[in-house]
Amino acid sequence: MILVTGGAGFIGANFVLDWIATEGSPVVSFDKLTYAGNPANLASLKGDSRYVFAQGDICDRARVASLLQQHQPQAIVHFAAESHVDRSIHGPGEFVQTNVVGTFSLLEEARAYWGRLAEPAKSRFRFLHVSTDEVYGSLGSTDPAFSETTPYAPNSPYAASKAASDHLVRAYHHTYGLPVITTNCSNNYGPLQFPEKLIPLMILNALNGKPLPVYGDGKNVRDWLYVGDHCSGIRAALARGRPGETYNIGGNSEKTNLEVVHAVCAILDELHPAGSPHAKLITFVKDRPGHDHRYAINAEKIRRELGWEPKKTFTAGLRETVQWYLAHHEWVDSVVSGEYRKWVDTQYG
């Protein structure tokens, strides 16, 4: 049994599905079900005895303690977080509450639970904290990629809140001995991603003939990681990672935002030719405040120590992602609510 926080979100849901398919052992998915948490992401597990859903907030320590006592997990995999940079610029308070206070609350209850375990369960227990490359700040065009020893330099409220949570996790290992592992990933993409993020936003806007908003000149660079590869990297870190260590998980796929948008348009021109060429919808908008220029992940450590490397090329992963959104109109319609449209209008005018 493992406990997955944020298990109804994009990466968390993909991880739960991946875990059930590959490991086969039971999962408790714990999620607050904010706008980005969607029970429909895990509808295929309905009736599966290996899957339990529990609604709640990681800041609710009594709820967390009850779940740990009831299910006795051998690991906590912590995805739950506010994760959208633009939203953190408009409302940083929620990010501090969830990402910092929530992680603190979870660590406190995990420490108490772990402290009561008998051997060998105590030695086997792990707390795996899923973080982001954004904690490292911004790279110049020719700078070496982020490694696990790159100094932290977060530039957005989101990145700062994740950096704070990383530091808390590290401190709980060094102060209390809690067997923690931290992973820092690059930009994820794939099925089930809420359409506030770049790739699904471009897909849905293009399908509806709406402008494709690109910040600034579109030359900001990100390293893109297919969500299935991220899930396998987390499983490797959980199974073979050393307590107290950090592992960077990257996709080896640096692309400018404009390259990504053009790639989405090219696939849609082929698979959904109505409205082609979709690139005519590209619209440059005012740049995001404090927009980091480039992120890049050096994933040599996890490859060398744990034998993990990404399997999906960006070309193949993006094509599968576009195909998934084209094939899942009902899912899209269920998440693109009035509240979502209000956010898009606020953000992109």
Describe this structure as you would to a colleague.
Helices cover 45% and strands 16% of the residues. With 349 residues, it is an alpha/beta fold. It has a domain at 2-193 and 227-252 and 291-312: Rossmann fold (3-Layer(aba) Sandwich). The strands form 3 sheets. It has a 7-stranded parallel sheet with strand order 3-2-1-4-5-6-10, sandwiched between helices. α1 (10-22) packs across α8 (227-240). The radius of gyration is 20 Å and the shape is globular.
Judging from the principal axes of the Cα atoms, what is the shape?
globular
Number of helices: 13
| Largest sheet composition | 7 strands, parallel
**What structural class is derived from the secondary structure elements?**
alpha/beta
Strand content: 15-25%
CATH superfamily of the domain at 2-193 and 227-252 and 291-312: NAD(P)-binding Rossmann-like Domain
CATH topology label of the domain at 2-193 and 227-252 and 291-312:
Rossmann fold
- The stretches of 5 or more residues where confidence is low (pLDDT under 50) are none
Mean pLDDT: 95
Strand elements, count: 12
